[in-house]
Amino acid sequence: MKRSIGSNSSGNSGSSKKSKKSNQKTLGAAWGAASRPSSSSYRSSPFSDFGSYMEVKNRKLQDQFETEASSGVSGSEELIFQGVSIFVDGFTIPSHQELRGYMLRYGGRFENYFSRRSVTHIICSNLPDSKVKNLRAFSRGLPVVKPSWIVDSISANRLLGWVPYQLDQLNDTQPKLSAFFAPRRHSNPPVTSSQPETGYSEAEEGSSIIAGDSEESRDNVVDEIDGVYTEKTTPEMTAQTRTDKLKSSEVNAETLGNYDKEEKELTSELQPTSNLPSASDNKSSHGKPVAPAAGSSVRRHSTVEDPNFVENYFKNSRLHFIGTWRNRYRKRFHGSFNGLKWTDSGQNTAENANKSTIIHIDLDSFFVSVVIRNRLELQDKPVAVCHSDSPKGTAEISSANYPARAYGVKAGMFVRHAKDLCPQLVIVPYNFEAYEEVADQFYDILHRHCRKVQAVSCDEAFLDVSDLRDVEPEFLASTIRKEILDTTGCSASAGIGGTMLMARLATRVAKPAGQFHISAEKVEEFLDQLAVGTLPGVGSVLKEKLEMQNIQTCRQLRLISKDSLQKDFGVKTGEMLWSYSRGLDLRSVTAVQESKSIGAEVNWGVRFRDQQDVQHFLQCLCKEVSLRLQGCEMIGRTFTLKIKKRKKDAGEPAKYMGCGDCDNFSRSITVPAATDDIEVLQRISKKLFGSFNLDVKEVRGVGLQVSKLEGADPSNKGSSKTLTSWLNSAPASIQTEKDDHVFAAEVREIPADCKRRDTGGVSSLRECNSAEPSVQSGDTNSSLPPMCHLDMEVLENLPPELLTELDGTYGGKLFELIEKKRGKRKINSDSSHVSLDEPHVAHPPFARAPNERAIETNDLMPLSLSQVDVSVLQELPEELRADVLGAFPAHPRQQSSSDAPMETCKKQDKETTYINDGENEIGFSSSSLWFGNPPLWVENFKVSGNSTLEKISEIYCNVAQSRPMLSTVLQRVISEVGSFHDASIKDLEKTVDDVCEFLNEYIKIKVEGDIEEIYLCFRLLKRLAARSQLFHQVYEIVSHFIQALISEHYGGSLSIP
Amino acid sequence: MHMKDGNSQTGEVARTLVGFLEVAITMIVFLKGFYPSAAFERRRYMNVVVQRARHPELRDYIHSAASGLLPFIQKGLVERVAVIFFSNDNVPVERFIFKLTINLSSAASVEENQLEFALRSFLIKLSVAKPLVKPLPPNCRWEVTAYLRSLPEVGSSKEGELWIPTDTKQWMKPPVITPVKSLNSEPLCLQLYLEHPSLSETQPCQAL
Question: So where does this one cross the membrane (chain B) (predicted)?
């Protein structure tokens, strides 16, 4: 019976609404049955008795679980939890709904109700004390494991041993008391041992390797080598997403070709001529792009033959170069130029776009010019860059110089066709080192002239020169162009305009090696004649649509209202068309953007024979992606696998080894912990690939993309993490912190007097009393913590008999240790003498604050003993009771009732003066003591020369890192107060003042927002007051201040415990 | 009033807060044992086990009380929300006060998760706050009262009409405060504390 209640408390994760409801019903029934046998809900149940009801219900839940398990994607998942059946108890992170989902997916079972027969593991993060004490009754001997076991197992893709994940209760959440509370199952905190298996720690190790990230859409032309593929949230996005949707490579290239005409026009001559029907025929030895050009290479170029295909693929990919270049650029220029600073002002310029001036600068036929800049003999000849000069000529030209363009040679054209047009065309290979060098020089020059540079690509950038009013933009542009030519040997073209759009359009006119300025007056004139197809972001599809509406030029486009454009083409596209046709462009020149996803895609040369090829290919691809992630110092949670599959009726593509006409598929998976770990990537990608159920021979392209990125940098992790992952990682960090803190710090410098446990600290002693026994009552399998981990403070507070017992378990070494520590401390501080009977001795009356009045003045204090509720008094701890009793006049009975009003008056007088005091104090010091980090008082106290103040300051420094709250300090003070020695009366007065001042200021800070903290401090002070003369006085003063402030802010007074 | 850019975000915070209040009020009523515990069912909110009223009218009252606060919270008008328990002579015996301040301007930056995390601690604390509360007198009743910084214009919003000016008797003396939980994170400062009549209060009351 009890079991079933327990399971309910864990909250059932009914998958459907229906099951949830039924759970709730049972809940009522279960309780009813437990507490009130005649409960109506029980009686109204259609089942003959509770047992049969539960049986049926359990069966139903199981059936539901099984159907769900069999219906999901689960087929492709590895069933790592086979044979594991968990029961989740209480609050867990991830929530038990999620846990249930994991069990569903990874072949485990999830029990809604505990049963010794079916459950194999109990999952929980916390247990109530009652369960801890009765662990065996609760768990029935089953392992009680933390949920991180499941998460980590999924991360590692195998069932990890549960032992390190055993619930080490309270140890990691509330270490102070609980370390002695819970049955210690093992001495070492399990979190530490398990940590290396979680994603984070590995991710943190990510070294900085340059990797591809965002890349301009213009480079997405399907090239022979097509690689880096990342998404950005720039306005170009529109063009890019559209590209994604396009099915065939031709259209794809065409769209983009329009987008950036001069380089990327694709001929429409993609006739399917070369017929290589099956992959196995492709074993001819065409050269792959390698530095010494064409043809000579033995490198193989399909996944069929080349085991290092992926690696080589990216090594020789122009797009990969561009992608990785960006990262290089960011690293190179971000340090020296303050990106943020000018992003802000960039926003301004966008707003008053009329005044802004933007230069778009573009190296002319970059990929060719760079290669031939040192080869004079090629200077005026038609030259094109292509990775392959094979006679078959199905390689695409990536860039052609202007002489070649004069013959009609264009980028994206097959070499074969280009040679038809221009027989003397020289084909040169890529030279990536030179590109890098020139690009760096190019940007060096740009940055020298202008602060606001937006790199678009390695050969193209926008400059915002609006701020440089003293320089004519045209003059500046020509200076820059000349410098570029001198430095790099490559010519550049520049376009000047009021917006990025206009600047870019101007560059088209300016090319080659020229510059063109479209001034604000001429914008309209310029746009009037401009074909809509040439606008960036207008691709062939959109252009066709526009032409169907008989819109060919921007002038015609301008006649249509924004509303109807948005209606016809969607909100964003409509908006874009409307503003572009007017030369408006809200984008401003900004720094390089953070990418939203990182990935790699290969869709050339992908031919698989069997599953093994695929596995190998995926491994390489994952390696690449992992490297890119590390290069960007990112880790991600969502993994998307994109597959290009040959269309059913599509023949072998015209382009050699190209992807041809394909259907695109993509599937993604989100894992609980972000990662860049190559093994995790591999496993996930294999899983995803398997879920497509494809004939591997049909696959023409594979891409893996990682999104939901988080910084791998451990320092900013906290901010970008989701709550779940944050909480998951929390116990680990807390654990280690605490270890250091409690054990290292406390043992070192607690000069608590050995006799304290005999004298003061009744209540702290009690805590220890109640906490301690569980150390002995721990399970038989519990092991003792190593002696060095023992908290001396706690030890010393233990009652002697317990200490003896403990000492026995440590083989008598404990006493030695304690003696040793004590000895050391005695030497260190000869001040640690304390009067044995201090708390019992009546406090000597001080002129300033006589005992009686002090507590009596409190609102809540009854005027005489007769008004005290005796039952309350009895409930009070001994020490408090003594306090309360002591607070009454020595002879209460003699006090006549007529005295009372007078007493009150006096009291109120005093009170007001106190308040005034407090206010004055604050008046000129205005909480400055708590200003700064560490607060000012810490330093003040440290140099005060007063041992008590020094102590407080020291304690603060110790606790400040974990929790810089006064209550924490006071808590520690309580445990150490025995060692404070009361100074001479004169000294005392000053100390009291100092302490009061610093307390008052703290209270003043906190009163607005955190009375919980004040209340805590208040109570702690009260406890302190019973133990120390100093704090007794402080309490008297401060309590009035607190009450006054509270009543000022909350219209009442704090209740006194 | 100061609804500017952070508008939607403020709305988000306010909505979360209202949802939280609904749950917290239910928890308080449950905690006080005002109704038999069978009148509540266990539910999960913010991944914590909480109570929910089973009776539709009770649920509706709490729900409408909390959600009726939404426009005022969004405007930053609500200063305190009190759950007040009365003795049969309409004198409050115990008040649970939620004192709240939303910084409307900085609400934009808040993370939902962190807010939930903080609010969850209230619910946890509430579920163990039994020792703090006093036993209920017989024939008592309870109500939800909101204290606004300024009275809203009449008919300014439909939701506002659900609320009526209260005629609850006040205590003669300042009450005794027992803090339960405080949260002071940037956009939202929320404190929950108990108010009991001061000891000297009970005397005149009983005498009357």
Answer: 13-35
Determine the Cα–Cα distance for residues A275 and A650; give it in Å rounded to an integer: 12
- Tokens 């006649």 found at: A559
A460 is in an annotated binding site: yes
Which residue in A40, A126, A1011 has the most chain B C-beta atoms within 10 A of its own C-beta, making it the best mutation to test that interface? A1011
- Indicate the average pLDDT of chain B: 77
DSSP string, A812-857: THHHHHHHHHHHHHHHH-TT----TTTTTSPPPP-SSS-HHHHHHT
Quickly tell me which residue has 């408390």 as its tokens.
A9
At A596 the three-state DSSP class reads: coil
Q: Does the distance separating the beta carbons of B177 and A1008 come in below 8 Å?
A: no
pLDDT tens digits, one per residue of A128-142: 777 776 776 777 777
The pLDDT of residue A28: 36
Query: Which H or E element spans position A771?
Result: helix A762-771
Q: How far apart are CA A336 and CA A342, in angstroms?
A: 13
A28:B195 CB<8 A: no
- Exposed / middle / buried, residue A921 (Cβ in 10 Å: 0-12, 13-18, 19+): middle
Domains along the sequence of chain A with CATH: 53-169 (3.40.50.10190), 362-492+509-515 (3.40.1170.60), 597-714 (3.30.1490.100), 936-1050 (no CATH)
At residue A261, φ and ψ (nearest 5 deg) are -65, -50
10 Å CB burial of residue A321 (0-12, 13-18, 19+) is buried
Three-state DSSP at A912 gives: helix
B187 touches chain A (CB under 8 A): no
Q: What is the DSSP letter of B153?
A: P
Contact A388, A286 (CB under 8 A): yes
Q: Cα separation of A1049 and A1044, whole Å?
A: 9
A690-742 residue pLDDT tens: 888 878 888 888 888 888 887 765 544 433 333 334 444 434 333 333 333 43
| CA A499 vs CA A218, A352, A354: distances in Å | 19, 10, 8
Is A519:A525 a contact under the CB 8 Å cutoff? no
- Residue reference for tokens 């999960």: B44
The structure tokens listed for A681 are 């990537």
Apex B109 CA angle, B105 and B112, nearest 5:
120
**Contact (CB<8Å) B174/A1055:** no
Inter-axis angle of helices B112-127 and A723-738, to 10 degrees?
70
Chain B positions touching A1008 (Cβ under 8 A) are: 189
What is this structure's pTM?
A: 0.36
* Chain A partners within 8 Å of B47 (Cβ): 91, 93, 95
Q: Do A1053 and B189 touch (CB under 8 A)?
A: no
Q: Nearest 5°: phi and psi at A414?
A: -70, 145
| A492 and A362 Cβ atoms separated by less than 8 Å | yes
- Characterize A950-980 residue by residue with b for buried, 16 or more Cβ atoms within 10 angstroms of its Cβ, and e for exposed: ebbbbbbebbbeeebbbbbbbbbbbbbbbbb
Which residues 71-90 on chain B approach chain A with CB closer than 8 angstroms? none
Q: Which of A77, A236, A262, A460 is catalytic?
A: A460
Single-letter amino acid, residue A93: I
Q: Are A636 and A706 in contact (CB under 8 A)?
A: yes
